[in-house]
Structures
1.
Amino acid sequence: MPQRYPTVLPAAAESQLDMGSARVAIAENVRNNRVLAAMRWLGDEVLAVYGLVLFGAPLHASVLLLAATWVAGVPSAALGLLSLLLAQGLARVLLPNSSVSERNWLACNALLTGLYLGALYAPNLTLLALAAMVTLAGVLLAAALRSLVDRYLGIPLLSLPFVVASWGALLLARHFPGLPLAKAALAEPLSLPLSDGPREILRLLAAIFMQNSAVAGLLVGLAWLLWSRWSLILALLGILSGQAILALLGGTHTGTELAHVGFNAALVAVACGGVFVVLSKSSLIAACLAGALATLLGIALQGALLPLNLPVLAAPFVLLTQGLLLALHGRLGSGPLQLVLGPPLRPEDNLHQVLQSARRYPPVGMPLLYLPVLGRWRVTQGPRGALTHQGQWAHAWDFEVENDQGERFRGEGQAVQDFYAWGAPVVAPGDGRVVRVINHLEDQEIGHVDLAHNWGNMVVVAHSGGVFSALSHLQQGSIGVHEGQTVVRGEVLGRVGNSGRSPVPHLHVQVQASAEVGAPTLPAQFLHFLQIAVDEQSYQTCGSPQTGALLQSLATQSSTARAFAFAPGTQIHWLIHGQQLGPPRRETWSSELDALGRRTLKSNGAAASIYIDDSYATVLDYTGPADTLLAMYAVAAARVPFAAADGVTWHDSPSILAHLSKPVRILLELLMPFGAQTGVPTHSRLMQGSDGTLVLETKIRRPHRLMRAKQLPDRLQLLVQPGVGPTALRAYRGDLLCLDAEVTL
Amino acid sequence: MTRLAYEKPTILRHNAALANKFGRAPGVRALERIDGVKVLDLVAQFGSPLFVYSEHRLRRAYREAYRAFSQRYPKVQFAWSYKTLYLDAICRIFHQEGAWAEVVSEYEYQMARALGIADAHILFNGPYKPEKDLEVALLGGARVHIDHYEELYAAERIARKAGRKIGVTLRISLDAGIHPRWDRFGFNLENGEALDAARRIHSGGHLTLQGLHCHIGTYIADPSAYGRMAAKLAALALQVRRETGMLVESLDCGGGFASRATLHAQYTPGVDATPPVDDYAEAISRAILEAGFAPSELPTLFLETGRALVDEAGFLLTRVVGNKRLADGTRAVIVDAGVNVLFTSFWYRHDVLPAEDRGGMLEDTVVYGPLCMNIDVVRPSVQLPPLEAGDTLVVRPVGAYNVTQSMQFIRLRPAVILLGEKGEIDVIRRAEELADLKGPEFLPKRLTS
């Protein structure tokens, strides 16, 4: 049984006894490292820039995009690549503290500028010099604009620097005779048997990269198809909406003019339909409308820019997307359109994250409180309770104590002291500052109420986010904190009493938007509590308990918390015995922490992002192959409360996407905006095993037939040694053990 | 027609059954049922004497105590005091309810381990822990409460040999304002030994101070004594933190809460005089919460309650053997259970109630046990109606200590049964046989002829 885990990353190659071979081995290592570094640079800082044009396509799609630029115009592609490399170099020199993603974005704008200039003008040295100067100007302009826009507006700049730099180049170029325009478009390398309509669409896709070739457009479309089906669908919707609106308005526009504008519709539809706005049925409509608007805006701008003889380029896309984001900024989740919080990923991933978060974690923007009482309490009146929680004060809870037999008092119940709740400590439901204390009112006799001072003795605490919690009906003189005092979660504020409108001793809890006594209540949820039913203690991460619920605050066990701490740098080595014949497989997990404080468990190609606080540990998301042990763990330990009590149970529904075969996953992703379920319901129980081990048993309820994943077992059992970490993971299908993994040193 | 046995007539002074200087006449005249089960049926089935425990009362007592403490303090853990009653079934009930185990000897420790209790959930108390058992417990991860310096040095030796730091708890004795003051257990606070021991642990480098433990007495009816004790213990923990940096993560306030039994010299019966467990909870919790701990360093509160949880759940059924008149005319009754199974009757005035109310005048009676020893008196004076041989009497509350302190002197130990919550009746310890007594004996060969 391993006692502890090594806490350093693995050492380099084993020591060689022979110095000669050691030197060779080191040299080999260094050479390999150089090659690896070069490959990494190529992927991260060159190919990724091509992918950035499509909002972050990965390597395999970016290669196709690179090919797309080279297919139709070698000069254009070459100038684009050179501008890209120049911009990367300039960024490293001029902006030494910039991150990879910022440099890539600068390079992306330079790439587009280079592609455009290379397509417009004939290749010669003058063009090269112009492109270099324009790239320099573009990098500086982009860097300057970005810090302003990021800080004050909070919206992405997209390809605005490309537009401005290109306009600058065009305004310059007409003064220099050494820049003749390029010859007519080259012939297509491949002739595609398509009618005009689809050919036009492909040309529009190619126009994203400043190309005019249908083959290039086909490669772009293929890249999107391989990477993100919904991006392609949104792009096509945008293009078709643009064409539709033009047909509706009955305009006459030549194909080339449309090509100068039409690709904006594709990009803006992707941006406003799935990348910056969460993909949904409403966002699809928004994408179509945005596509139509972009087309019209483009034509309008075209007219406006005619005197300057400047093309529209990507201006409609940039302006429309930024405008929409500004409009939606700060209006989170209240309407049918939802902004993507955090770094934008491909539309399917954005939606998947939002669906997971809505299904498994507290709603964004919902005030969250810990229970303000200790031990087991009954909610005698919950939100919208019939007695007094009505109208503007609907979201409130009344707590009382019952004994084993359900009685609220001992003896006759004639005196306040007879009630079990009387005098119980009331603790701060979260960190904050006390803003209001009323401590002088008398406690009422049993059955009498003080209607003049409805809330009696009370404490109002201001929490972060502009919410206030109010704890009322406290005992006269029992409040030990004063106004202005900072309190921490769990600090004793006062004692349960019977002041105010309180016929029997109880605690009234509500969340409100101001510090006023009697302010209207806000909907809120409690965090990390147990809901007690007959023979069942079910853990809830968050919830709004109703009248009659029996609640208990989650008492945590530090040894359990330490077992799931996964301190960054630790490595866990597993030995896995599968049911099939063959040698046992080995897998190593390593825990990492990134600069933004995000924790990940990585295991050769798979990654599980985890979140750990002092109450529970949860697996936020798993990406990677379905057959790793980490994938099993992501389901088994999707959520683990550090409960001290034995036999606590809970429900969860971790994502099933990673466990599906590729075709089924693609199908599910296509159905996601229309209500397809991406989670598999699980039921877990944490028990004390023999000899002090913890046993976490998770039963997986049968997923929908469509989602039947061959890799998923019925039941997973994780054995944990308190204070140390996991020791074994077993998977069962029925009664058959289909996977047995144990930790080795 | 059978001849009736002759009983010499006596003159009995009538009590008008109203209040006089000796108190009221007892209100309860008989106890016919325990948990709905007829006492006479139990005696008929299992014989007498017979210990009867009620699972319902056990669980209720635990839940009441847990509720009282858990609603006043965020981290509470009860540990069932094995010495109060270490029958497997009883211990199992408390462990099911969530209690850990508190043991005071190596065999109690082994009992707890045999029941499947993890080392980390065992509190090991006591002034005498043989070194090899101490080693097993410490290395297994049990929470050992150190009583004196020699034990501390032994623990250090064990930790040094094992090559790792081991956490221990220090038992502290202090003045809680009550009498008698138990200063024979643990390190004394007032004379400075407690702080010295903590410093010794810190400077020794092989142990860490996991917790502090103080158990101020037994059957303490004054909750404020616990408040004073908890305050002093908390102050010591904070002082240790300041001076040595060691974080005391647990405060064990022991047990000793009064049950609703009545001491011999106590006028008011325990049912009225004993404070509810909420009062003890309030005193202890308030003292610790107001001591000044940082919210993240608030220690876990351990409680080793024994008597208060089990006393009222235990009954003894005994049968009348004979009647007597003593020299001064006092009536005496001989029953088949005496101080051999009711050790606590030396200190407590247990209720003795007939199992059946057949009417008759109540008379002050001495209840003698079956032993041929003058000290064997169950009750020197109790009001009982006329009883015949074979009549059943119920003695209560006898749940605490009587089973564990029963002697095999003159009479073998009786059976113990458990009444379940759904009416189940189970024997959890059978009545002893001669083989149980003679089994360990050896007769030397030279004495066999």
2.
Amino acid sequence: MSALLSVRDLQKTFGQVVAARDINVDVPVGQTVGIIGANGAGKTTFVNMITGHLKPSGGAIIFEGGAITGLPSRKIMRLGVARSFQVAQLFPTYTVFENLCAAIAIAHSGTSVFSAAVARFVSDRTKGEAETALAHFQIAPYRDALASTLPQGMRKLLDIAMATAGNPRLLLLDEPTSGISLEEKFDLMEVIMAALKARGTTVLFVEHDMEIVRRFADRVLAFYDGTVIADGPPTVALDDPRVAEFITGTLIRAKDGTLKAPTVSHA
Amino acid sequence: MSVRHTLLGALVFAGLAACVPLLPLWLISLITIAMSSGLVVSGLIILWRAGLVPFGQALFFATGAYTVALAGLWLKISDAVVLVILAIVAAALVAAFAGLLLARYREIFFAMLSLALSMILYGLLVKSEALGSTDGINVAQATFFGMKPRGAAYTIAVFWLSLVLVFLAWLSVTAYLGSVAGQMAGAIRDNEIRVEYLGISVTRLIHLKLTIAAALAGAGGALAALSISHVDPQMAYWTTSGGFVFVTILAGAVSVPAAFIGALIFEVIRSIAVAVLPGGWQMILGTVLLVTILFVPNGLGSLIMRKRIAGQGGSK
């Protein structure tokens, strides 16, 4: 598989603090990558650098063969990279349908504000795509509700549905299940992943719940102290002793006194 | 806007133009001045919807007015249409330049910075002998496609010009508000981060809004200059900007025609207030503003729109 996203020697420092160092990752088309790590490990910094929210201190980010390092977020979005946020970023005074129409209309209106000034906001195409998104993300029952009145799960779904408006090839989800109850988390992820798989979107998602990662990720990137300490399929990466020691905290002390990762059943 | 609505609007404006023989000259002048103010307010609606309230829109109004005066004085241009076009271009250019700074600011900082820029222009106009200083400049009566109406005919010709400008402003502002950029106003007010992450520059969107609003203010200034046949620094003063904000509150931001109706009501109230209470007319205007904010917080336009929404079954 060809690499959709390549990250080379990525660095980020804030004064004396090193937030990211020597990150090297290739993400092939179609892969779903779970990003794990303790708070402050550098997960969101990594996502923020890819999406242009933060400018890297060094290294390169290549998307579809072209460098996107340090570009403004809106330009990166236009190239086919989208993201959702830990706290859903919506237009609270718009209805769910209007939120989707806004996202879709911008995606269709071209790159300049002048083309946006002549493109019609409400078109049959925009409305049609908004209705499709409502169905795919199962938020149709809330179609005419104001975004400010939505329950947390629906806010997350709408945020992600809006991010997919321009049919991005790469989507980064920052803690899609944060603030969601344990019972609802898996259902929510099922809806999200089903919708994204249908679109063939490559996904990187930041997640703290290891069961979610184990179930939905094809591959895991484990972050610790600003760098990737484990990279591989969930069955391998999540059982890596360093991951167990620094992230999942599941190391157990054997009878001989050494620390070991527990044996996990993946049936 | 549908072709049917456009044709209906054109008919209404043609009807208004034909009403001239029925109207006294003072009323025609009053309507013309109100329409010049309405043009500015129609631009303020664009900014207002994005949560931006400039307290210095007189900067562009005065730019338009002085462009007309100086183009006549220095370049000997007399055609009214050419003068209005020049005024629109000049005001838009000033906004394109000022917008490099203004578009980065929001809320009170945006409001006060725009006020500061308008007061700089006021200071320049007051101090500059070449620009007429405090006395201002007399504007030569314009020609209309080679014709030189004078006296009452001139007042009527400027009135007709005002109707054409208002019609064009109504069409273009309505078209803009229905566009993606126009509809993003509420989104900008709600959440700039999300707008940026949908792939469009908020700063550039606001810069564009500012430039369009300035072009309309320039047209308003040109119309005022042609109507009064005089320009002076007061046109750039903060009280002039305050008057535009007053009318915007009165009209509200939901309806474009309300900008012109609100401007007309404002001029009528001001004229009556000055006649009834020459020393305290501001008190009457203040009361009107108070009543508007208390009882019609979304302006007169919301009354029209509310009826239409109810007629459509409550959908937005």
